Amino acid sequence: MENHSENQMCGGSFNNYEFMPADSWRILRIMSEFVQSFDDMSQMPDRLAAVFGSARTPEDAPEFQSAYTLGRLLVENGYGVITGGGPGIMGAASKGAFEAGGKSIGLNIELPMEQHPNQYQTDSLSFRYFFIRKVCFLKYSTAIIVFPGGFGTLDELSEVLTMVQTSKINRIPIILVDKEFWSGMLHWFKNVMVKRGTIAPTDLELFHLVDSAEEAIDYLLACHRFGFRTTVKQ
After folding, report:
1. Strand, coil or helix: 145
2. Residue 10, pLDDT score
3. Which partner from 23, 58, 112, 121 sits 20 to 30 angstroms from 64, CA to CA?
4. How confident is the chain (234 residues) per 10-residue block, as mean pLDDT?
């Protein structure tokens, strides 16, 4: 016969893993990650640009050099850089910003493969959850600049386009770099999605396509010539 008094002394229901409200406790971990990251990011400069792109881009690729140049130009024009903190495009933009003497903020994610924090971060945050990391990217960015990438890059781009399209956030410059890379996707947008009515023709105006870091900076400065704002609606 089970000794109930002994079970209670040893912790009772808290030792019963079938009873343990695991999702409820996970909420506290999620909350703590939000609080910590918001507190850290609130100390950063106001004028920040997020740079997205592939972690797999080698250093001898043209887009790596372009992202490096972009990071440098952003700092020279008064911006700090936010990346995912990894290698490839992220490492290139971080390196450009770091070597120009500016802020290079890395929002690192814990992954079983690929993600290795680059050495060019002046400020480094670590995330367990992708969705919290994406909130931080959008909440503290005044522009989004997207280089060629894979599923993660497409996820980040789709997120910001959806948030702007649905007016959940303020509209900010969304710049896609490398016309050749993005041409297939844009063709699909125009000739399939628009024609079938899944997006409106005006949704194609939510982003701007360029071919170089210099063009990206020129467009960004033109957008911000009368001032800038973050995504957060008051």
Report:
1. strand
2. 42
3. 112
4. 43 45 80 94 94 96 98 98 96 98 94 74 93 94 97 96 96 98 97 98 98 98 95 85
Cα separation, 96 vs 69, whole angstroms:
6
Query: Buried (b) or exposed (e) across 192-212, using 16+ Cβ within 10 A?
Result: eebeeeebeeeeeeebbbbee
**In terms of C-beta distances under 8 Å and separation of at least 24 residues, what long-range contacts does 159-167 make, across chains too?**
159/134, 161/203, 161/206, 161/207, 163/138, 163/231, 164/206, 165/199, 165/203, 165/206
Nearest to 83 by CA among 139, 124, 42, 34: 124
Q: What is the DSSP letter of 231?
A: S
Per-residue tokens: 189: 């947008």
Contact (Cβ atoms closer than 8 angstroms) between residue 137 and residue 182:
no
If you ran DSSP here, which 8-state letter would residue 117 be given? -
Bridge partners for 81 per DSSP: 49, 104
Judging by beta carbons within 10 Å of its beta carbon (0-12, 13-18, 19+), is residue 143 exposed, middle or buried?
buried
Predicted model pTM? 0.87
